[in-house]
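Hi Q.,

Before the meeting this afternoon, I wanted you to have the magnesium ion prediction in hand. No need to reply - just skim if you have a minute. The sequence and ligand are here:
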Amino acid sequence: MQPLIELENVVKSFGEHRAVDNVSLSIRKGEKVVIIGPSGSGKSTLLRTINCLEPMDSGTMRFAGKPAGYVQRGSELVPDKPRNICALRTRIGMVFQQFNLFPHMSVEQNVMEGPVTVLGESKANARATAMDMLGKVGMAEFADRYPASLSGGQKQRVAIARALAMKPDLMLFDEPTSALDPELVGEVFDAIKQLAVDGMTMVIVTHNMGFAREVADTVIFMENGSFLAKGSPGDFFQRQCEDPRVQSFIDKIF
Ligand code: ADP
Ligand code: MG
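Predicted structure with the ligand bound:
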């Protein structure tokens, strides 16, 4: 089966520093990839590159079999037309550590905004989708509330519903529970697990090993911009002992 997304030899530097160093990754439809690794190892930069928030320096990316974000012109890699990049980005949902909800809009308006302004959906349609997605994350009864009156876990679930309302093919989660009090982490992971059960393709940066074990098809350990270890959770948690750097990291986060 054709992968949903394929990265080949992707490099992204900031000045002299290679934040993403020659990364290749292929994700099939429905696959759940968990990325772990120390702070500064390039996890966020990798997600931002996949979502075309950061232009890559070299390498290629393909989405559903087509070149994505960049096109080869002669020997040069040049950014694709903004219109094509926007079209690609509507197919990739991203959820950040900070929820970034629009504070002046109700929960329902937050979730309707993308479909109305970006996809040109009618308000009636967008409202129906919004309520559906809020239902999926257990937030339907909060539709008329404003972000300021919600807990962090509730805000993050609204942020997930907002991303889902765009009906993405791929969801990227960048440490979605790191800003939350420990007692609110479970409700957010439960919402993400439900998406996993529904078959969503996703890449999740998290240090929650329980979640990785339970949900991941593939676990990747990233360090200094590269993948140091990659495998199924079973393989990963057994074999990691062979690599002292992976082991020492896992020991620290448990
Ligand atoms: P992680 O998410 O694994 O903590 P990041 O992808 O945020 O790592 O960062 C990887 C490296 O790239 C770090 O050394 C960081 O300082 C650097 N970096 C990230 N974003 C920028 C930026 N916008 N400008 C300069 N350096 C950056
Ligand atoms: Mg990060």
